[in-house]
């Protein structure tokens, strides 16, 4: 054994404790460290010829790289829609690495059954029925890709084409209808051979809404003469957290042939709050559903889940035909359900967090984040230098500069906020106007954090 490996093995408990102590120190100071790193990264060093051991690696990381890492796990990182990681989920994530289970198949481990239990819990959390099967994937992009892949296979079934064997070209053109699709939808369409240009935008409701006009959607479907299509509905748009009328869209399936995929990356969590649960009424009628867990479930990157009513078609797309992997009979191994053969136990951090905090704990996170988003929105609305671009519907505040919100001025505002170290927000364009988004999904965020963000925005806006 290499001397560095032998030395690390002999000191394994101490090394793990050192890493734990370092992580604890980083997390303890998270609320006060700069939220975003704005300096230049160090130059790239050459590959070490001889290993220095894990202790030296930790020291080198702490000195050279850790100071430039963002505070994205912290309470005032409001960029994208990024949750942090609850204490229980961090413990689960560490054990995922330490136990290093191979989720390709059963392999003498109960890990696959733990994932199935976790999927069952999540299905219940979001109000889905037993007809929906599911599996863990890396994020919303992969969840949407899996859902559309199954949809593509369904269209083949309707047209008498085995897409998994004959290829997407055998289908002919496949149309995807959506009002405000996330960018990952067109990325998935590209990956799957459907083609980005096959997206068919549907008019939105008036009044600055991002929700689809169901009447316009029906008119578009009626003109297809029965040819099957894919409809992507939104349960929470990225700019304003607007929701399509899922129940009304699902009702159209009785008259028109389409696969209903719902992108509920973070909007599905509205189901936890009695005040907002009606927003996802009809989610159970979807043929496939995307939910991103490293957003509002607050588990570490990367983790999402996908659900579908047609696991048989999912197996047709993703099964791996190899003698050493086994055939997908009965309840198939997860390698037959997702693009990956190599799968880490992503379910364990979610399992830990669900056991530790339950439905009630995660509901509290959702409801607190919504209340804080409203607080920030009200504060922005009262500032003379800023204005809201849309109502605060759930957990995202979409706003811009008053007066002339040019791209240059808005970009400068975002840089100034990041440079303050107090907060981090990400850019967007809404209704043709450059703006910024503050997304609340972190379990740590408090009223005091929200007030600090508002003060940073006020100072940066002048």
State the gist of this model.
Helices cover 41% and strands 12% of the residues.
Describe this structure in words.
Keywords: Decarboxylase, Lyase, Pyridoxal phosphate. It comes from Streptomyces albidocamelliae. It holds the Pfam family Pyridoxal_deC. The structure is a single chain. The protein folds into 3 domains: 3-71; 101-343, Aspartate Aminotransferase, domain 2, CATH 3.40.640; 353-461, Aspartate Aminotransferase, domain 1 (Alpha-Beta Complex). A hairpin with a 7-residue loop joins strand 8 and strand 9. The N and C termini lie far apart (62 Å). It is built from 15 helices and 11 strands. The protein is 41% helix and 12% strand. The chain is of the alpha/beta class and 462 residues long. The model has no long low-confidence stretch (mean pLDDT 95). Strands 1-7-6-5-4-2-3 form a 7-stranded mixed sheet, sandwiched between helices. Strands 8-9-11-10 form a 4-stranded antiparallel sheet.
Order of SSEs: HHHHHEHHEHEHEHEEHEHHEEHEEH
Q: CATH H-level name of the largest domain... which superfamily?
A: Type I PLP-dependent aspartate aminotransferase-like (Major domain)
- CATH-level-2 architecture of the largest domain: 3-Layer(aba) Sandwich
Helix proportion range: 40-55%
Q: What integer is the average pLDDT?
A: 95
User: How would you sum up the global shape?
Assistant: globular
Q: Give the distance, in angstroms, between the N- and C-terminal Cα atoms.
A: 62 Å
**Assigned CATH class of the largest domain:** Alpha Beta
Rg for CA atoms:
23 Å
CATH topology of the largest domain: Aspartate Aminotransferase, domain 2
Spans of 5+ residues with little confidence (pLDDT < 50)? none
**Spatial strand arrangement across the major sheet:** 1-7-6-5-4-2-3
Tell me how many strands there are. Answer: 11
Largest sheet: 7 strands, mixed
């Amino acid at each position: 054994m290499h001397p560095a490996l032998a030395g690390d093995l002999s000191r394994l408990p101490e090394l793990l404790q050192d890493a734990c102590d370092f992580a604890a120190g980083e997390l303890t100071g998270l609320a006060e460290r700069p939220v975003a790193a704005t300096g230049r990264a160090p130059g790239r060093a050459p590959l070490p010829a001889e290993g220095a051991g894990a202790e030296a690696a930790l020291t080198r990381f702490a000195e050279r790289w850790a100071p430039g890492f963002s505070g994205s796990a912290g309470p005032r990182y409001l960029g994208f829609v990024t949750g942090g990681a609850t204490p229980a989920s961090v413990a689960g994530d560490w054990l995922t690495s330490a136990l290093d289970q191979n989720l390709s198949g059963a392999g003498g481990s109960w890990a696959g059954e733990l994932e199935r239990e976790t999927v069952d819990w999540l299905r219940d959390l979001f109000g889905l029925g037993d007809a929906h099967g599911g599996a863990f994937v890396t994020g919303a992009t992969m969840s949407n890709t899996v859902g559309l892949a199954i949809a593509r296979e369904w269209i083949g079934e309707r047209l008498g084409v085995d897409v998994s064997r004959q290829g997407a070209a055998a289908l002919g053109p496949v149309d995807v209808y959506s009002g405000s699709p996330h960018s990952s939808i067109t990325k998935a369409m590209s990956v799957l051979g459907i083609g980005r240009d096959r997206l068919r935008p549907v008019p939105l409701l008036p009044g600055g809404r991002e929700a689809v006009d169901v009447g316009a959607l029906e008119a578009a479907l009626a003109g297809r003469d029965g040819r099957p299509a894919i409809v992507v509905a939104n349960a929470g748009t990225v700019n304003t957290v607007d929701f399509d009328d899922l129940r009304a869209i699902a009702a159209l399936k009785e008259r028109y042939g389409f696969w209903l995929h719902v992108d509920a990356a973070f909007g599905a969590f509205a189901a936890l709050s009695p005040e907002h649960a009606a927003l996802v009424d009809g989610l159970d009628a979807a043929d496939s559903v995307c939910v991103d867990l490293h957003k509002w479930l607050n588990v570490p990157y990367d983790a999402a889940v996908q659900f579908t009513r047609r696991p048989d078609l999912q197996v047709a797309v993703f099964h791996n035909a190899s003698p050493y992997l086994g055939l997908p009979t009965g309840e198939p191994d997860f390698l037959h359900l997702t693009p990956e053969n190599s799968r880490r136990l992503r379910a364990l951090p979610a399992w830990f967090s669900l056991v530790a905090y339950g439905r009630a704990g995660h509901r509290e996170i959702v409801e607190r984040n919504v209340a804080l988003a409203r607080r920030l929105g009200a504060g922005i609305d009262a500032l003379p230098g800023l204005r809201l671009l849309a109502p605060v519907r759930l957990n995202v505040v979409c706003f811009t500069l008053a007066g002339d919100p040019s791209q240059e001025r808005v970009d400068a505002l975002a840089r100034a906020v990041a440079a303050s170290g107090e907060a981090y927000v990400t850019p967007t364009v809404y209704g043709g106007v450059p703006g910024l988004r503050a997304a609340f999904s972190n379990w740590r965020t408090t009223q005091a954090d929200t007030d600090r963000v508002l003060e940073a925005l006020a100072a940066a806006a002048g």
